[in-house]
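Worked example

This section walks through a single chain of length 708. The input is the sequence exactly as stored; nothing has been trimmed or padded.
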Amino acid sequence: GGGAFPVQGEAEIDPLNLIRLVPAQGVHRSFVETTNLTKHQPAMSLEANDKDGWLALSYALVMTVLTLFAAYAVLYTRVFSQRSDKEKDANANLEGFISASHTQGKWRIGWSFYAGSVGAWCITGPPGYATFAGWIGMVFYALATGIPIIAIAFFGQTVQDKYPTARSFGDFVSFRFGPTARVMMEIVALFNMSIFMLAEFTTIGGLFKDFVGSVSYPIIIVVAVLTTGYTAYGGLLVSIVTDQVQAGLSILILAIATIYVAVNFDQPLPDNFGIYEESLGPNKSGYSAILTMPMSLMSATVFNEGMWQRVWAAEDSRALKQGGCIAAVAIVTAVFLYGFFGFLAAWGGMIDFDTANPNLYLFQIFNDQPGDGNATVNNWISVLVLVLAATMNQSAIDSLQNGITATLSSHFLKGQPIYFARGCVVLISIPICVVALQNPNVLSIFLVGNMLGSCCFLPILIGGVWSSEQGRRFINESNLVYSCITAILVVTAFGIGKFWNPDDVGNSISVGADYTWYSNPYEWEYFAVAAGTSLIALFVYGSIAELMFQNGIQGVGITDILSNIPGFTVCAGAKQHIDPVDYQTAETAVQKEKDVDAQIGTPDESPLNAYPVYSNGTANGVMMAPGLMNGLTLPPPPAMPGQPTVPTMSPVMVPQQPMQPIPLQAEQPMQPMPPAVMYPGQFAPASTDPSAFYMSAYPQPAMTMYSQ
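Given that input, the structure is written out below as C-alpha cells.
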C-alpha cells in the first residue's frame, strides 16, 4: 500500500497469486535475483508442474484434517459428552452405543443425514453420470438422493410409533414380519452397506492414485484406521457429532469451489450443447433416470442401517422430521452442483472422452484450457476439493461402520458388554479395506446393491405402513420372503432372455445375468421388472393367503419349515438374550432358554405391551403394568387371529411399595398354552411348551402368557 512497491514492466495478472514481489524504484535488480524472485514468479508458491510439491501438500493437508476430526471425536466422547445430561450415558450400554437413545436435536440429525449420504462418491458419480444422462439425468440424480431422506424420516417415525421397543431395522422387520424375514433383510442390508463402504474406500484411493499421482493404499489405510478408532470408541454418538463438523466444512469448500467456477470458467458454451447434444440433452439414459434413480437410491436408503440409526437418535418426532427435511434440501443442492460441474466441463469442451478418466470429470473444470489433458492436482482449488472428498469420505465411512455394527449387534449381541460391539467395528473394517485395495469398479458394485434392494424394498415399506389385522394376513412373513425371491429370479430371467441364444445357452445365461446385476448402465427396464415383480408377487401370494384364511385352511409358514434345521432358531434371533459366547449348539441354546424361562418367566416383548407383566399380589392374580394409576381398568390387547382372548381386567389398587415380579414357585409347574389356531403364512408352534410358544409367528411377537 502507499506505492512502496510499484510494479515495473508488463507483469501478467494472475488472480491466484495475491502477493507479488518485484523491484521498486531505486532497488538494484541483483537483490531480487539473489533471492531467486522475478516479477513473474510469486513468492512462496508452487509451480503447476511441480508434481512432488503438490503431492506433498495434498497429503499433508488431507492427513491433518482427517486427524483433527478423529481427535475431536475422541475428545468429545471423553470430555464434552460427559457434561450433557442427555449424552453422558449414551455409551453406557450396547443399546446406547448403536442408537444414541433419543439424544439429538434437529440440526445434528439433519447434518448427520447429510454427511452420511454425501460421501466421496459424489466427486465421481454425479459428474460422470451427467455427461451421458444429460441435464434430465443430472436433475433426477440430485432429487432422488434427497427425497429418500424425507421418506425414511417420516416412515421411521411411523415405525417408532408402532414398535417403540425397536432399536434397529432388523428389530422392526422382526416385529412386523418374523425371524426369517429379519434374517433375509439383514443379509440384504449388510451386503448393501458393505458395498457402499467398499465404494467409498475405492473412490478415495482412486482419487489419490489418478488425480494426485500417488498410490491408493496409504489414504485407504489412514482413513480406515482413523474412522475405525473413533467409531469403536464413541459409537453412533460420536459419528453424529463429527458429522456436524464434517458437513459444515464440506459445504464451505463446496461453496468456495462454486464461486471459483462462476468467476473463472470462461469457455464458450455452444447452442444446444454443440456436438454433445445427444449426450447432454434429453436422451434415453436421462429419461431412465426418472425411474431408476429414485428407485435405486430409495432402496439403498431403506437397507442402510446408518440412516435408520438417525431415526432412533432423534430426540423426538419434530427433530426427526425437520432434520430429514433440512438434510434433503442440502443433499439435493450439493449433488446437483457436483453433477453440474461435470456437465459444464463437458459442455465447454474441457473433457476429452477418449482419454479422460471418468472418475475425474469434475476436476476437468479446473483446467485452464480444453487441451490441458487429464486433470491433476496443480492448483489450490483442486487441493481444496481433494480435502472436500476426504472429509465426505470419512463421514460416510463412519456412518456405514456404525450401521453394520448396529445390524450385527442388535441381532447377535443383545445383552452383551459394549466391547463386543467395539470389536465388531474393527472386524468389519479389515476385510472391506483389503478388498478396496484391489480397486474394483465402483459403478458396477453400486449396481449390485441397487438391484438387490429394488427387489425387496417395496414389500417392506408397504408392510410397514399396512399393519392392520388384514394387512398382517395379506403381507405376512412368508409372502414377503417369497415375493422378494420371486423378483430376484424374474429379473435375472429377464436379463438372460434379452441375450438369449439357443445355440449358446451357457453364454446366454452368463452374459444375461452379468448384464442384469453388474454391467447394465442403470437401464430403467431392469429396475421396473425388479420392483414391479415384487409388487405383483406380493399381491398374488397375499390374495392366496387371504382366501385360505377366509375358508379356514391352515397354511405352513416359511419359519415353520426352516425351524426344522438345527440351529435356525438361534441364528434367526429368536433366542436373542442367550449369551452367544457360551452356547455350543442350537439344542444347548434352546434348553438354556427353557431353563431361564422356568426360573423367571418370559416378559412380553410385544410392542402392544412394552412393559413386563406384573402381579398386584391379589388372590385372583389380576395383572397390571407399572406406572398405571389406581382404579384404572386395563383394556385387553387387540386380539389377532389365533391368539387367546384376554378378558378385560377389573379395577385394582396398586400397592404403595414398588411392585416386583412374582417368581414362579418351583413346586408349581407352568401350564402349557393350548394350541393356537393359525392363519395362512404363519409359523405354527411346534409344541405346546411355553418356551416354544415364544417362537410363534403371530402378527406381533407373541404375548407369552403363563398361569400359576
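What to look for: The two ends are 94 Å apart (CA to CA).
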